[in-house]
């Protein structure tokens, strides 16, 4: 007897995503084959990421289903949890050093990093972290050539809850916890505040320009609240650069 499909919600840009038994099925896109090879390589270095399972009979990509709660439903994460998030991101980046980076000119990237030198997830955020018996980042469809700085900037901003309405002192403490967990060196800590401002603004600009050009699903997201969220977040991150610099320059 075949397992029934169970539609999974929460994704904004992945197309239709369903659970079938202990697998997740979603559309096979141009980069899927390379991304599945990347996942295999990261797993081979001992990092827990969803196991890629090829294609099903309908041509859909298949990956392992990971049970647990999404981190976005458990925010704000506490200090120890944020340290763990930082350690997981570091383990992913370190494992990625062993995967040959694709030619950036031949890879579709929505928000490209300057001088990409590492294969990265590119959406390491609370809506993509499963927290249960295992802590696993899911939804690797956007993986591609990037840098540690660009990838960590987005993760630190999103897990730190660096957005409008958050007390700056609390956000700075969360930011530091993620970066401490990552074990960032002085150069990375120094570069992060500006990178977070650029990365957050880039997200807003993607949504705004997509709305103007009709580029979906980003155009829909812009008018459904994401545009205003990222506009305000970009302003918040830029206005509080001194707080982020001070938090990241403190001795561990």
Topology summary:
Elements: E1 5-7, E2 18-20, E3 23-26, H1 32-44, E4 52-55, E5 61-64, E6 69-70, H2 79-96, E7 118-120, E8 129-131, E9 135-137, E10 144-146, H3 148-159, H4 168-182, H5 186-213, H6 218-239, H7 241-249
Antiparallel strand pairs: 1-2, 2-3, 3-5, 4-5, 6-8, 7-10, 8-9
Mean pLDDT: 92
Termini separation comes to 56 Å
CATH fold name of the largest domain: Aminoglycoside 3'-phosphotransferase, Chain: A, domain 2
**Please, what is the CATH homologous superfamily of the largest domain?**
Aminoglycoside phosphotransferase (APH), C-terminal lobe
Structural class: alpha+beta
How many strand segments? 10
The main pleated sheet reads as: 5 strands, antiparallel
Main sheet strand line-up = 1-2-3-5-4
Structure, explained:
This protein has 252 residues and is of the alpha+beta class. The chain has two domains: 5-64; 69-249, Aminoglycoside 3'-phosphotransferase, Chain: A, domain 2. Helix content is 46%, strand content 13%. Strand 8 and strand 9 (135-137) form a beta hairpin.
Q: What descriptive keywords fit this protein?
A:
252 residues, alpha+beta, Aminoglycoside 3'-phosphotransferase, Chain: A, domain 2, 46% helix, 13% strand
What's this, in brief?
InterPro entries: Aminoglycoside_PTrfase, Kinase-like_dom_sf. This protein is α+β, with helices and mostly antiparallel strands and 252 residues long.
